[in-house]
Design brief:
alpha/beta, about 20% strand, about 450 residues, 15 helices
Length: about 450
């Protein structure tokens, strides 16, 4: 019996990305090789070494167009991003959603749940609301205690707030939860949702990740110095250089990506348009041994993760059309490419195309794998391969320069493999397949 008794398809995707708000804008930016990385005066004022980053173009107008002011007051930044992406995915899948007109009156969807990850969510609430209010209460009026914070403070700082918001707005009755697994968070969420459907606990699941862009979220990485890019503050759009010879650290970012996963039976019963199929998914850890550390993956763990997905899908590596790697613009890039080469065991001249979405959106931490998976689905549906920018001069330790597209390529994609490798030596891999109608 197959490890996967049920076929799982994607029926909706949503994106809140630094280079595009919504799928149409995101697609246009990806095709054009448009960077969403900009210089931020706030980071300069705080004396960050890295003063660039990717922030989605979401302001009051964009948020209020979807969410009522009363609800917005109860959301932190990551919750807003997650909600916007999930609503877009729901609507694309054929689910009617209007958050300004009595969503509380809609029936509970008992057959659908959500697993939406977050890496360091709620930092904006903790530093801009909780900390100042608590300090003021202590300094000015000790008798008031914590009451000035209000009753919404706890929901806005819970790590699970991103999935809680989606569960509320979409009325989800299935398991609704949040995972957190560093850079692998978004990919792991999709893996967990995939398993949930395979086990028959739900008919459909929203899966992905969200991350805010508060300076506090990025400050710890900046303290590590060599982790973030600090050499391109005057040229922010050049700062993220995955696989490039000039890569000097990742450009931090935020946003959200959400996919609606559904059993084939459910999608057909609803008459939903099927975007593509998720044929295999897997996560593992390298144990922080044999070269694996908090910040670098164990190459053996990476290879095992990739090979397990290929084995479960019963796919010859030669049939892979495209690799969407983790590829962060750090010293780990050549090691990652070397692991792909060893895992696939293909001649270098037959190595598939390989790309890094982070070259345009930066590293969105808990949202990274989700935004990249959304990009994969969109490329499969629309028959293109987005470029990896800023790596015209490929890193000298990467021997597959000919497989890296520097401009958009029109191409029908059959199988696309997407992977994430996170702090703590944790790995995730997904294999998507073009929907053939069968």
């Amino acid at each position: 019996m197959s490890r996967y008794p049920k076929r799982v398809v994607i029926t909706g995707i949503g994106a809140v990305a630094p280079n595009g708000l919504g799928i149409d804008a995101y697609r246009a930016a990806l095709k054009a090789g448009k960077s969403g990385i900009a210089h931020h005066g706030e980071l300069q004022a705080l004396n960050f070494a890295c003063q660039i980053g990717g922030k989605p173009p979401v302001g009051p107008d964009e948020a209020e167009a979807l969410i009522s002011n009363a609800d917005l007051a109860k959301l932190n930044e990551a919750m807003v991003y997650a909600t916007m992406a999930a609503v877009e995915a729901a609507r694309m899948s054929g689910v009617s959603v209007d958050l300004k007109k009595g969503y509380n009156d809609t029936p509970v969807d008992w057959s659908t749940g959500a697993i939406i990850g977050c890496g360091i969510g709620g930092m904006d609430t903790m530093l801009d609301e909780l900390a100042p209010t608590l300090q003021s209460a202590c300094d000015q009026d000790p008798g008031m205690g914590c009451r000035p914070m209000g009753t919404d403070i706890v929901p806005k700082i819970m790590e699970s707030s991103v999935s809680v918001a989606i569960g509320k707005f979409l009325g989800l009755g299935g398991q609704t939860t949040t995972n957190s697994s560093a850079c692998n968070t978004g990919t792991e969420a999709i893996f967990e949702a995939f398993k949930h459907l395979q086990l028959g606990y739900a008919e459909s699941m929203y899966a992905g990740g969200a991350e805010g862009t508060h300076a506090g979220t990025w400050s710890g990485f900046d303290a590590m110095r060599d982790v973030l890019c600090s050499k391109f503050n005057d040229r922010p759009e050049r700062g993220s250089q995955p696989m490039g010879a000039g890569a000097c650290g990742f450009a931090p970012a935020g946003g959200a990506g959400v996919l609606r996963l559904e059993t084939l039976e459910s999608a057909r019963a609803r008459g939903a348009k099927i975007l593509c199929e998720l044929v295999a998914a897997y996560c593992n850890s390298g144990g922080q041994r044999d070269g694996g550390t908090m910040t670098f993956p164990n190459p053996e763990g990476v290879m095992r993760c990739i090979r397990q997905v290929l084995k479960d899908a019963d796919i010859d590596p030669a049939r892979i059309s495209l690799i969407n790697g983790h590829l962060t613009s750090t010293g780990a890039d050549p090691r990652e490419v070397a692991s792909w080469i060893k895992a696939l065991e293909l001649p270098l001249e037959k190595f598939p195309l390989i790309q890094s979405t982070k070259s345009m959106i930066g590293h969105a931490l808990g949202a990274a794998g989700a935004l990249e998976s959304v990009a994969v689905v969109d490329q499969i549906v629309n028959g293109y391969v987005h470029p990896s920018i800023n790596c015209e001069e490929v890193h000298p330790q990467i021997p597959i320069a000919g497989s890296i597209p520097h401009e958009m390529v029109k191409k029908e994609l059959e199988h696309v493999i997407k992977a994430s490798f996170g702090f703590g030596d944790v790995n995730g891999c997904l294999l998507f397949k073009r929907w053939d109608g069968k």
